[in-house]
Specification:
With 146 residues, the chain is of the alpha+beta class. It contains three helices and eight strands. It has one domain: Roll (Nuclear Transport Factor 2, Chain: A). A hairpin with a 2-residue loop joins strand 5 and strand 6.
């Protein structure tokens, strides 16, 4: 462990930011492929999504509705192939906010395009698993931009 500004952190702030940015991008690539059916609807493949979420995960969507891990996992399983092959997700403006102990917070924009475009700004709180330094999605709050 390192010390920075008197706070214990598992990795340097840059490493935290890199790990979490890569996780955000990778999980959204999976979500895009899942929702436009570019990958097979397979429980083993789907674990990429469900295993990324902490057991206590919660999401607050742009409509102000909150869902638990169980609810969002079921919802995404059912969302397989709901978008056309042209559906895309682009992540922009990743902004690391704080790294403390095994917690990392950032904001980013998620831009979706298919028949109509949408955008949201998200605040993510990751818990970093100290066993393997893997970021787990713990709390996600989305606010609509478009």
């Amino acid at each position: 462990m390192e010390e920075k500004n008197g706070n214990k952190i598992l990795l340097s702030d840059d490493k935290f930011a890199d790990l979490c940015r890569l996780e955000i991008e990778a999980l959204h690539r999976f979500i895009e492929a899942w929702m436009n059916a570019c990958i097979e609807k397979d429980e083993t493949l789907f674990k990429r999504f469900s295993n990324a979420l902490d057991d206590d995960f919660i999401i607050i969507d742009p409509n102000g509705e909150s869902k638990t891990k169980k609810e969002i996992v079921e919802s995404f399983w059912d969302a397989y192939g709901i978008h056309p092959k042209s559906f895309r997700i682009i992540i922009k403006n990743f902004n690391p906010r704080i790294a403390f102990n095994n917690i990392f917070m950032a904001t980013y924009e998620e831009w979706q395009s298919a028949e109509k475009k949408s955008a949201r700004i998200s605040t993510i709180l990751f818990k970093i698993d100290p066993q393997n330094n893997k970021p787990l999605w713990y709390h996600l709050h989305e606010t609509g931009l478009l």
